[in-house]
Amino acid sequence: xxxxxxxxxxVSFRQYEGVVQAVRGVSFDLESGESLGIVGESGSGKSxxxxxxxxxxxxxxxxxxxxxLSLGGQxxxxxxxxxxxxxRGRVAAMVFQDPMTSLDPVFTIGHQIVETITAHRxxxxxxxxxxxxxxxxxxxxxxxxxxxxxxxHQLSGGMLQRVMIAMALxxxxxxxxxxxxxxxxxxxxxAQILQLIxxxxxxxxxxxxxxxxxxxxxxxxxxxxxxxxxGRVMETGPVEAIFEAPLHPYTRALLASIPGQKPGKQRLTExxxxxxxxxxxxxxxxxxxxxxxxxTACSTTTPELETKAxxxxxxxxxxxxxxxxx
Amino acid sequence: MTAPALELRQITKRFDAQxxxxxxxxxxPRNEVVALVGESGSGKTxxxxxxxxxxxxxxxxILLGGQDITDLSQKAMKPFRRQTQVxxxxxxxxxxxxxxxxxxxxxxxxIHAIGTPSERRDQARHWLERVGLDGSYATRYPHELSGxxxxxxxxxxALILGASVLVxxxxxxxxxxxxxxxxxxLLQDLQGEMGLSMLFISxxxxxxxxxxxxVVVMLRGRVVERGPTDRIFAAAHHPYTRALLDAVPVIxxxxxxxRTFLSAEELxxxxxxxxxxxxxxxxxxxxADPQLVALVGSHFVEAIVTEGR
Lengths: 326, 309
Fold this sequence. Notes:
The complex is a heterodimer.
Chain A: E1 2-15, E2 18-31, E3 35-39, H1 46-53, E4 62-65, E5 68-71, E6 74-75, H2 81-87, E7 92-95, H3 99-102, H4 109-120, H5 125-138, H6 144-147, H7 157-169, E8 175-179, H8 187-204, E9 207-212, H9 215-221, E10 224-229, E11 232-238, H10 239-244, H11 249-256, E12 306-309, E13 312-314, H12 317-325
Parallel strand pairs in A: 3-9, 3-10, 7-8, 8-9
Antiparallel strand pairs in A: 1-2, 1-4, 1-5, 5-6, 10-11, 11-13, 12-13
Helix pairs in contact in A: 4-5, 5-7, 7-8
Chain B: E1 6-15, E2 18-28, E3 33-37, H1 44-51, E4 59-64, E5 67-68, H2 74-83, E6 84-87, H3 91-94, H4 101-111, H5 117-130, H6 147-159, E7 165-169, H7 177-194, E8 197-202, H8 205-211, E9 214-219, E10 222-228, H9 229-235, H10 239-247, H11 264-269, E11 273-274, E12 291-294, E13 300-305
Parallel strand pairs in B: 3-8, 3-9, 6-7, 7-8, 11-13
Antiparallel strand pairs in B: 1-2, 1-4, 4-5, 9-10, 10-13, 12-13
Helix pairs in contact in B: 4-5, 4-6, 5-6, 6-7
GO biological process, one term (chain A): peptide transport
Region (Disordered) (chain A): 262-286
Keywords (chain A): ATP-binding, Cell membrane, Membrane, Nucleotide-binding, Transport
């Protein structure tokens, strides 16, 4: 079953300076049990895409338009408040970057997990607390019986992120959406949290959407990748293919610029220029001002996302030309 | 032998009862980049701030070009402030939003009463270009720039006085992936051109591998290992260094593997042990306190050296 279907999603924000299009015609799907990575830099539209999918954006100032936007088979554009409340948490749950601001500082960890469980299920508080403890144990918190009585400030960042994952799992969602879940964490804790997410996914068979700026996180965790830049999808494909033979010049440049891949002090391959300003994007392909392969047509035509190889798409007129010439 | 650019001897910082930095020895040789790595709470930032005397040490000495600056008054420090400069992680909060970029870059010259206002403006433009920005940026404001451009401004301001020692505290951590390489290259180019000595504080081991000559690893306020960068990446000896390196995501989905994680207790129990005769030169004998011992050349690891078990 298709858990997520996004077709031609556009998200704009009305601001003082005018309308900002954060997401410009994004499409992708997620099959049940699949793990998908959305990789992009700040301003690429990766987080806004997923917030729009769950209808978490305040509308207005946000305006969402799409040919199709569905989650667990339900039309998210037509769903009313009540329907949304039952979809969120049950069909899809989200884990955010900063667990400290996602949790309420004045309530205990146990209270907040119980609140989530009782909001979606008809169970007693006592049973819900037992389930909260079981969930904390599942995310490998050893003294779970004690931790339910803790307040957020008593836990480290890594522990809090485990709590957030436990909370997201509390209603057995069909898909977990993790938005930069390890960006604020130390590297050793990041490795543990990523492993935990992978283990839980393998065990429950839930779908996973991993949003990140870190290609290393993508390489370690997901099966399929969506590369975003300037509010658009640049490339999609299986993770191994993307890393072995990236199609889009942006993906290639991004992979080449990662430091520390070879031993020795050395200059890095840099991408000149800066990411586009969402309020004033360049015409044509958003990457063309920084692209080493750009031709005049790149600044006038916006390339469509096209199938370039089995299971692989890219939005680049130069890639098509290359393949035709080969 | 010329004195190292920067030397910290047994530097210690206690806040109330807590020892954040515990008897750290650190040397930044001239024209080298020394990376100080460790996780949050390891004391790496406090160590960097003590090197600049922005935080006063509880004990230990700070030497700049061989000269002890630990007890100098703020006034006597002023000439040394020209030699040591700093770039912080967050360029948004470290640049005054009310000043133009030209004013920001030229401010250190004004503070040290160098040149006339028009000479200072020329210098600022020169430095804008040197860090890869157009001279016309001098009249713009920080909010008009991207994160990478702001970090270029921070670098220009830090180096306009001709500093010989640069402390860079996570200068690339807040930057986008596509811009990170630009700033790493800029620092590397300027380091070569100006003969800078750099203390590069970072938790990003990938950047460290491409930029640093030496790596110093800190854990809970202590240096647990230090050595040439290639040696640390190829043959780390301390279990904590190995854990840190092992946790770095691998940019190749085909080599995915399950990791095993050591608990804090297992890490502590894993401190290397040597018998005194195994160590050259002979260290203090039979003490339960861990000490830094030389392995090969300039590769040191914290170990317990004792005959007993």
